[in-house]
Design goal:
Blueprint lengths: L1 H27 L25 E6 L2 E2 L3 E4 L2 E3 L1 H13 L2 E6 L5 H7 L5 E2 L7 H4 L3 E2 L4 E10 L15 E5 L3 H9 L6 E5 L2 H10 L4 E5 H7 L7 E13 L2 E2 L4 H16 L2 H10 L8
Parallel strand pairs: 1-5, 1-6, 9-10, 9-11
Antiparallel strand pairs: 2-3, 3-4, 6-13, 7-13, 8-11, 8-12
């Protein structure tokens, strides 16, 4: 009987030992871990526009070669650039004409257009009212005069001389800050072509305006005008947006970066200025 009990105890001990080994074995051999599920990348918020599938662009379309209306069609450097951006964003682009000095107020209202593309210089003052994209072109001011004029620099302008500017532009501000204190009369016009018309008519002796535009305007021999001086100001143009639509601004910046990187920017620049850009901002 004692032997039987010992045998039974031994068997129970063996069963318990093997059981513990099994448990230990389970703990030592881990099940293959399932691959970690990556969190989906956070998508940039979808931008909104006044009309779904379309970006409506406010522009002063009398500013070649950036924007101009020819036979009822709006064309120019800004126009092609924005259309290329629209293609990358998968939306249609429509330009609407406004006076330059009404664009910022219109953008703040947010009911007429989604962005501004109008050779608009980025300034701290304007940033208080609207948002800007990354810069898309570098620009300086310039002095244009009649082809037969002896004026060669802004220092040749004298008290009582009249110079034309476009109302609401940085050219107007520069002229008021730097020429008006010397007694030079700064005369604003609704658009830059009107200022050049006044120059051709002899109403003014010069035009202060962004260099790329003036250089393009004087290519027309009928203007009988020439650009005689570039005025370094370190200006850059940007597209403008309502401060509440940062998603559209960011989407445009992304598309603009692609255009600068893949050569599209240079192609568009050469088309409208006849040369490669000296620099790309």
């Amino acid at each position: 009987m004692l032997k039987g009990r010992k045998l039974l105890s031994l068997l129970l001990a063996l069963v318990l030992a093997f059981g513990l080994m099994g448990i230990a074995g389970c703990g030592g051999t881990e099940e293959p871990a399932e691959p970690a599920t990556e969190e989906p990348a956070t998508e940039a918020p979808a931008f909104t526009t006044l009309t779904e599938g379309k970006i409506i662009v406010g522009s002063d379309t009398a500013y070649p070669p950036f924007e101009n209306v020819v036979n009822g069609v709006t064309e120019g450097f800004d126009v092609d650039l924005v259309k290329a951006i629209g293609e990358r964003l998968g939306v249609e682009v429509e330009f609407k004409t406004y006076k330059f000095d009404a664009l910022i107020a219109g953008m703040q209202a947010g009911t007429e257009f989604d962005m501004i593309a109008s050779a608009m210089t980025i300034t701290d003052e304007r940033k208080e009212a609207i948002d800007f994209s990354d810069p898309y072109i570098n620009s300086n001011q310039s002095l244009a005069v009649a082809a037969d004029s002896t004026i060669a620099t802004v220092d040749d302008l004298k008290k009582g001389d009249k110079v034309g500017v476009q109302s609401g532009t940085t050219g107007e501000k520069w002229a008021k800050d730097n020429l008006a204190p010397k007694g030079i009369v700064v005369t604003p016009y609704d658009d830059i072509l009107a200022a050049f018309n006044a120059l051709s008519a002899g109403d003014i002796v010069g035009v202060i305006n962004d260099a790329p535009i003036s250089q393009d305007v004087v290519k027309d021999p009928a203007r009988k005008a020439k650009v005689v001086a570039e005025i370094p100001t370190g200006e850059q143009y940007g597209f403008a947006f309502n401060k509440s639509n940062t998603a559209l601004r960011d989407a445009v910046n992304g598309a603009l970066a692609e255009i600068k990187a893949d050569g599209t920017y240079v192609e568009i620049y050469k088309k409208w200025f006849g040369a490669e850009p000296l620099s790309i901002p």
